[in-house]
Amino acid sequence: MYKVLRKKRTGNIIEEVKGETVGLVKTNIIQILPEGLELESGEVLPGPIDVAYETYGTLNEDKSNVILVCHALSGSAHAAGYHRMIDEETFDGATEGWWEDIIGPGKGIDTNKFFVICSNFLGSCYGTTGPTSVNPKTGKRYGITFPTITISDMVKVQRELIRQLGIEKLLAVVGGSMGGMQALEWSIMYPEVVESAVVIAATASCSAQNIAFDAVGRNAIISDPNWENGEYLEKGKVPSKGLSIARMIGHITYLSSKSMDLKFGRKLINGKTYDIDNIEFEVESYLGYQGEKFVNRFDANSYLYITKAMDYFDLTEKYGNGDLKEVFRKTNIKFLFISFSTDWLFPPSESLEMVSAALAAGKDVSYINIESINGHDSFLIDTEIESKAIKAFLDATFQEKQNRKEKTYERRKDFEIIERIIEEGSRVLDLGCGDGELLVYLREKKKVRSVGIEIDTNEVIECLSKGLNVIHYDINKGFKDKNFLEIEDKAFDYVIVSKTIQQLKSPGLLLEEILRISKNAIVSFPNFGYYKLRLQLLLKGTMPVSSELPYSWFDTPNIHLFTYRDFVNLCKAKGIKIKQTFFISRVFNKEMCSKILPNLLAEEVITVLSYEDSSNK
Amino acid sequence: MYKVLRKKRTGNIIEEVKGETVGLVKTNIIQILPEGLELESGEVLPGPIDVAYETYGTLNEDKSNVILVCHALSGSAHAAGYHRMIDEETFDGATEGWWEDIIGPGKGIDTNKFFVICSNFLGSCYGTTGPTSVNPKTGKRYGITFPTITISDMVKVQRELIRQLGIEKLLAVVGGSMGGMQALEWSIMYPEVVESAVVIAATASCSAQNIAFDAVGRNAIISDPNWENGEYLEKGKVPSKGLSIARMIGHITYLSSKSMDLKFGRKLINGKTYDIDNIEFEVESYLGYQGEKFVNRFDANSYLYITKAMDYFDLTEKYGNGDLKEVFRKTNIKFLFISFSTDWLFPPSESLEMVSAALAAGKDVSYINIESINGHDSFLIDTEIESKAIKAFLDATFQEKQNRKEKTYERRKDFEIIERIIEEGSRVLDLGCGDGELLVYLREKKKVRSVGIEIDTNEVIECLSKGLNVIHYDINKGFKDKNFLEIEDKAFDYVIVSKTIQQLKSPGLLLEEILRISKNAIVSFPNFGYYKLRLQLLLKGTMPVSSELPYSWFDTPNIHLFTYRDFVNLCKAKGIKIKQTFFISRVFNKEMCSKILPNLLAEEVITVLSYEDSSNK
Predict the structure, then answer these.
(1) In the listed set B290, B312, B334, which residue is the last one of a domain according to the structure?
(2) How far is CA B23 from the centre of its chain?
(3) Count of domains observed in chain B
(4) Where are the alpha helices (DSSP H) in A518-577?
């Protein structure tokens, strides 16, 4: 195990980072599929196919600790470590793996636990067969005679690589951006091989805007006279202007407007020159530099093929006949989706769309949206929370397979009541699930299939580490809007809303929503009719404060206070049946509460609700 | 006056529109500035300079009804009407003015009232002198020997045009996108000529992302071998590929991702061809068509000069030495800013930045943010609310000059109390100002200088029509965040919060905020301590409902209820002095309320607050 000192750029700040690393690594090349590969287009790519790959960590005895990492558009197999030692004087990390922040000893993908594989995908130019390779049939470079490929073709090659390495199961496939698309394809094509997928900053199908940007980039390459109808290598030329323009366009889409303002703003290199064909702004010069650098490290035809594969990517159409739910019905693996708040290339709404579909298909799905300023590139840069979430998810998934020993759980009065209500094996949604203690309790006691919804990032990660399905979401946004989380009618047997309803913007609407998405609801709330609260207001003339309602009126999250009687009236008005009621009081005994004057004596109330009309069930 | 039947595209829907129009119009060309024009760069553009312009409506006797409309990047002087009659069979409106939706009889810019001028700006290729023009000194076309120009150079030419037309004053300068930038320059360069400016979908300075997109576009043009170092016209060539790529990039930034999904989605023209250099998606084909169309109607060098002028645009640096407030201190005109929710080229936050600065500079400023899906292009497409807002603002501004006769205003108990509190000529902010009745009342009675903040679009337009300054904004976002509305310390003498505080997310924080931005606050609220409310809860055990608090607990906007005593306690805790208190009761008389048991007897309370510490004043 190595330790290095290196520079890390987060937003506008370059900091020195000391960290553990897998150290020196090298890329291997293996030849597979001697008979060739039948592609999605129907064409056959002649074999053998070269695949470049790297591995980190150690394969365990039962080969149950394998994680496949998939790279993005211009990435390579070199995901972690260094190809040569880092220079401690200059901090030169030019050969650092592209996800060094995430992969390594003790990191998000922990190489002390896992055996990690990353391979360069088909069509790229970093060692795996692609347009720059020689066609074994003609002895000449492919150029644009290379067949058009898709993401699933890339995944087929990865599948074969895994087989050649003697591995039968993957604990997880993990990838960001186009890597996320590969992870998705894996989950649908080979659900019997994969246990779980971590899909980061990705989408189920490229949007019209994605295609538009890609198309302009391809247009720029093809319009460059040096492209020579794709035969530039033969003619000793490079369509550098076209490729550079394509990269510049791409680069803008990887950043956020805010991060560009912070990095460059309107800074000029040498003041205004009033020269019409001069590069004057720092951002122009930076993009120009990025374009140039890319020309030196990437192949123009590869760029055409890879962006085309991305544009073709459409899970919904390919596997779902237009319905994304159908896609997720084809798999049984566990998903973790991660998005970033300022990513406008594959925005959070597109991750939520997948979460909604996976949920509708009844799959195990978790989601976290990470606040960041670095746009789409955040998945490579803002890695702190990303790393924690991946680690919690992967470690729990691994532990689950090793026969998890449940921690001792909290014994709480309300947990016991809820346990009694819920039937074995029910499908349960906990709104505002916090650290997930109740769901862990119910998992043990009642073998429920559950998912929690929680707004707090740290609680979400806590839930992930317990192996729970958890969705990072603001309940106030509801479950109906296509741009947010959508939940289908009667998707659950029970929705639990524990002391949360009084904190929501529209408690009335939420009540209708939860009885739309669930057969039954278990709603607990503090009773504002509790006699001590009434007397406080009456006698002191101030808003009451109690152990159940501990906040001052001006900063309380409890924005819709109500009494037990108010609640009963609302349910009546909405045609909601209160099937069971439990009263909790610290002062009076439960019997007394439920028999006489519950609205006066109960501090907390737990109700079980459903619609009167059984046709709604 | 003509009436036409024409097609209109809104989002994805093409509808037939019957409407009144200025009818057949033609573009005039005038020669001005025979001595030439000294440019911002220091260079002199030789005279005379051609200016293409159109006018609509009739100049009134005192020439007080003139409105200058400024066009955007690729626009022309042809803003309204038709260059030839529209074909009622085919609805062919190819020669329709670019803002026909907004300019015409009875429309947003009402040609029944106003005399409207629109001129093609300097550097363009639609009749006004630009790179395609012949340099009078050499007898050859300028090409890239045309001097580099800025937005203020364009405005100088417009200023001279107005003078030549015998006009001394402009009621308003109105423009969207780059047209908005011209309106801004006008307001700073010639405040003595302009009464008001309507600045739509614009910014005070182009962002790094704006510059980046423009720079890539210019790069594409210059990289095209047919550009021939700018001398393509001489050589009989056109850098069509480069210009087309530049336009495609621009076009993507004018639309929103959502509008592209609605228009094109992932639709293919002829199914998947698996052809690497083929145009397959409809969005690709559409962009290609837009690029081609543009090549036929626009000059590549003009594109370079105009985008450069846009990139140079930075009011803050040019007039404010880095402080946008200083810029607005240089003018005394009235502003209306308009932004569109899905505009990501010049997003709402950039309009709010200007609103904040104008407010800090003590200027008359109004703002409306319009919900739309069409991105930056919304200002040309989603014109319904835009039109109403412009009309309300322009008509009120015009009427003001014609000596406004105040409508009779409402006489309300609370208005009279507030009138007594506020001193003549104070600077007043009304939070949640509704239709502006209170501010109209105070304008008449106390000659206050005022601004209202209101979240409802229709109320905002109502305020505009009353000639009030009004800002369309959600108070819950506060007044501190750089991305939202920022208000400086002690910017006002009085902030009025009339029965709004209990509806806010954080009443405690808001109270601090208003006493930061204002010397005094007038806060009125319903008293939850009112005896009838207390008794309702005590005896009925339900949340009270009254005329002051008319909502049910589950859908009430009153999310932070409190008693008069709670409020007094909060003020004490925060070091806020309650300078005056007025009690309103329908049952008890005022005297009784204020002397005995106000917390029991008052239904509504009006308080005047300031910080104890006078150094805060």
Answers:
(1) B312
(2) 28
(3) 2
(4) 531-535, 564-573
Give A388's DSSP letter: H
The answer to whether B245 contacts A220, with C-beta atoms less than 8 Å apart, is yes
Let me know whether B308 and B412 are in one domain: no
Instruction: Enter the DSSP assignment of A286.
Output: H
The two three-digit tokens of residue B490, written as one number:
């002690």
Do A388 and A358 form a contact (C-beta atoms < 8 A)? Answer: no
Residue B488 lies in a domain: yes
Task: Please check whether residues B292 and B422 belong to one and the same domain.
Answer: no
Local confidence band at A528 (pLDDT 50, 70, 90 cut-offs): confident
Give yes or no: A343 in active site.
Answer: yes
Select from B309, B303, B120, B124 the least CA-distant residue to B224.
Answer: B303
Torsion of CA B276, B282, B287, B292, to 10 degrees: 80
Alpha helices in B165-232 (DSSP H): 178-189, 208-223
CB contact under 8 A, A215 and B249: no
Looking at residue B507, the DSSP 8-state letter turns out to be: H
CA dist., res. A465 & res. A459, Å (int) = 10
| Contact: B223, A241; criterion CB under 8 Å | yes
d(CA A29, CA A25): 13
Q: What CA–CA distance (Å, rounded) separates B451 from A277? A: 46
Query: pTM here?
Result: 0.93
- Residues facing A175 on adjacent strands: A70, A199
Q: Are B338 and B379 in contact (CB under 8 A)?
A: yes
* Domain stop point among B295, B312, B329: B312
Q: Which residue has the tokens 């407007």?
A: A257
Q: How many CB atoms lie within 10 A of CB B232?
A: 23
Global ipTM? 0.92
The yes-or-no verdict on residue A617 having pLDDT over 50 is: no
Domain that holds residue A550: 406-616
- Comparing C-alpha atoms, which of A283, A282, A249 is closest to residue B245? A249
Q: Check CB contact under 8 Å for B216 and A564.
A: no
Is A511 within a domain?
yes
Separation of alpha carbons B577 and A371, rounded Å:
39
Amino acid at B433: C
- Token pair for A594: 């439920």
Supply the DSSP string of A41-69, one letter for each residue: TS-EE-S-EEEEEEEES---TTS--EEEE
Closest to A115 (Cα-Cα) out of A148, A144, A159, A80: A80
Answer whether residue B188 is part of any domain.
no
Q: How many CB atoms lie within 10 A of CB B444?
A: 14
Helix (H) or strand (E) holding B282: helix B282-297
CB A331 within 8 A of CB A363: yes
Residue A269, domain member (yes or no): yes
Q: How far is B373 from B370, CA to CA, in rounded Å?
A: 10
Query: A581: helix, coil or strand?
Result: strand
Q: Say which of A343, A377, A382, A435 is annotated catalytic.
A: A343
User: What is the Cα–Cα distance from B276 to B465, expressed in whole angstroms?
Assistant: 57
**Mean pLDDT, to the nearest integer, of B531-544?**
77
Residue B71 φ/ψ, nearest 5 degrees: -95, 170
Closest to A455 in 3D by CA, of A480, A438, A430: A430
What contacts A435, CB < 8 A, 6 or more positions away? A459, A462, A463, A466
Chain B contact set for A225 (CB, 8 A): 225
Nearest to A272 among B225, B242, B312 (CB): B312
The residue whose two tokens read 């060539």 is B237
Token output for B332: 């005394």
Identify the residue with better confidence: A546 or B493: B493
Sort strands B49-56 and B115-119 into parallel, antiparallel or unpaired: antiparallel
pLDDT in tens, A467-491: 999 999 999 999 998 889 999 999 9
Query: Is A194:A333 a contact under the CB 8 Å cutoff?
Result: yes
Contacts of A596 in chain B (CB under 8 A): none
The verdict on whether omega for the bond into residue B507 sits within 30 degrees of 0, i.e. cis, is no
